[in-house]
Amino acid sequence: MAASLTAIGCKPLPSSFHGSWATSFLAGEEPALLSRTPVPTSVRVARPRRPSPRMGNVNEGKGLFAPAVVFVRNIVGRKRFNQLRGKAIALHSQVITEFCKTIGADGKQRQGLIRLAKKNGEKLGFLA
């Protein structure tokens, strides 16, 4: 290789390596010692801990209407508040269903609109 580089006018790079990769060892180590070194067959890596699933709204306490919703829930009581919320959600779903009948949307589109209403309710804080 060095001869071919010098033939085209390039000088070989200076190196302290003399020999081949097959015969090079660390200073003072013999090949027999290197072959006896135990090699780990597998490495255990701990899995990251996942947070436990949380029931409820991920946007709890967030949103424009969240303070008002929490205020009413504290005054009325959680049980009565959940009954009123259920009635309001059912009424809103009926309004969406009637709207879909009026415009001729199928059941899949109606279901998509109801899911969209739920997402918007979460973002605005109605489900806080």
From TrEMBL:
Q: What does the record list as GO biological process?
A: photosynthetic electron transport in photosystem I; response to high light intensity
Q: Which domain of life is it from?
A: Eukaryota
Q: Coiled coil located at which positions?
A: none
What segment(s) does the record annotate as region Disordered? 39-59
Any one Gene Ontology MF annotation carried by this entry is:
electron transfer activity
Gene Ontology annotations for the cellular component aspect, listed alphabetically: chloroplast
Q: What is this protein called?
A: Protein PROTON GRADIENT REGULATION 5, chloroplastic-like
- Classification of source organism: Eukaryota, Viridiplantae, Streptophyta, Embryophyta, Tracheophyta
